[in-house]
Amino acid sequence: MRHYNIRVKGKVQGVAFRFSTHAQAIKLGLAGLVKNMPDGSVYIEAEGNEEAINKLIEWCYVGPPRSKVTEVDAVESEVKGYRTFELKRL
């Protein structure tokens, strides 16, 4: 079990990035959360096996069709024990 904190920058708000991330994470069997941040970025915490997390990180570089990702920062962190993947508001 791994845990990553991921921040995605660029045109990632108002383009269904959170909803698409949520769907992708569920498809990959990950737990955690995704939320928009006040600075215009999207913040993700993802827990699961390393292969699934790597697939989510790769997907973050592309995102949904209307997004334009300029930067993805992924840092491994302490496992928190999420049971589901939550879609959070600001």
* Average predicted confidence as pLDDT: 97
Write down the CATH topology: Alpha-Beta Plaits
* Total separate domains: 1
Helical content (DSSP H or I, runs of 4+): 25-40%
How many beta-strand segments? 5
> Are there runs of 5+ residues with pLDDT below 50, and where?
none
CATH class: Alpha Beta
Measured by DSSP, the beta-strand proportion falls in 35-45%
CATH architecture: 2-Layer Sandwich
- The helix/strand series, from N terminus to C terminus, equals EHEEHEE
Q: Which structural class matches the secondary elements?
A: alpha+beta
**C-alpha-based Rg, rounded:** 12 Å
Question: What's the SSE blueprint?
Answer:
Layout: E1 2-11, H1 17-28, E2 31-36, E3 42-48, H2 50-60, E4 68-76, E5 85-87
Parallel strand pairs: 2-5
Antiparallel strand pairs: 1-3, 1-4, 2-3
Helix pairs in contact: 1-2
Describe this structure in words.
With 90 residues, the chain is of the alpha+beta class. It has a single domain, classed as 2-Layer Sandwich (Alpha-Beta Plaits). It has two helices and five strands; from the N terminus they run βαββαββ. The chain has helices at 17-28, 50-60; strands spanning 2-11, 31-36, 42-48, 68-76, 85-87. A five-stranded mixed sheet has the order 4-1-3-2-5, covered by helices on one side. β2 (31-36) and β3 form a beta hairpin. α1 packs antiparallel against α2. The longest helix is centred in the first third of the chain and has 12 residues, at 17-28. It is globular. It starts with a strand and ends with a strand. The model has no long low-confidence stretch (mean pLDDT 97).
